[in-house]
Design goal:
Elements (H helix, E strand, L loop, with lengths): L4 H23 L2 H18 L9 H33 L13 H6 L4 H10 L3 H11 L5 H8 L3 H25 L1
Helix pairs in contact: 1-2, 1-3, 2-3, 3-7, 5-8, 6-7, 6-8, 7-8
Length: about 180
């Protein structure tokens, strides 16, 4: 598939905010989401020749955005693990490191509802998180989500339902821990 420069500009303008929201829904950091958005469109431009038109171009775009976001989260997780190991073995002089969960300090830190929701989202399995994010952050309908995820419509409905239940359960656990 080939797009003229004008068509490509229109495509990017049409989907830039939606791709940004998709990435932001996963990474929860505007700077990272912005970088990922640019990376998504670079990948699309580089791979347009490979697009087979078996699905809509927007579906393909969302799939790339989801994959890039998930890969980013995996890299961040690995970095944090190595950083924690490094901090454990090489603490800064005079700095006391605590690796114990302290609910009192968490409460005092003033975690707001958005942070709690993000923690609950992080506990979802990958498919539930993808379906929920595409539904709530990008406002895609269930048919579009099914196409992006390559699953059935009933599977999407089930994933979103279970995601909502699991989020509610996690939020209730957090409240009980106070």
């Amino acid at each position: 598939m080939e797009l003229s420069e004008k068509e490509l500009t229109q495509f990017i303008n049409k989907f830039q905010d939606k791709v940004f929201r998709t990435c932001l829904g996963f990474v929860q950091n505007t700077s990272d989401a912005s970088d990922l958005t640019q990376d998504v469109f670079l990948s699309v431009i580089e791979s347009l020749g490979n697009f087979r038109s078996e699905s809509q171009l927007s579906t393909w775009l969302y799939r790339i955005a989801v994959n890039k976001s998930l890969n980013h989260l995996k890299k961040q997780k690995v970095r944090r693990i190595f950083q924690n190991i490094d901090n454990f073995f090489n603490p800064v002089k005079g700095e006391v490191h605590h690796y114990i969960h302290d609910p009192v300090k968490e409460k005092e830190s003033g975690q707001d509802a958005a942070e709690k929701l993000q923690r609950a989202l992080g506990k979802l399995n990958e498919n539930q998180r993808i379906a929920f994010t595409l539904s709530k952050y990008d406002e895609l309908d269930n048919r579009e989500i099914a196409s992006v995820m390559s699953v059935s419509l009933s599977a999407v409905e089930s994933l979103i339902h279970r995601a909502k239940q699991n989020i509610l359960t996690e939020l209730q656990k957090m409240e009980a821990e106070k």
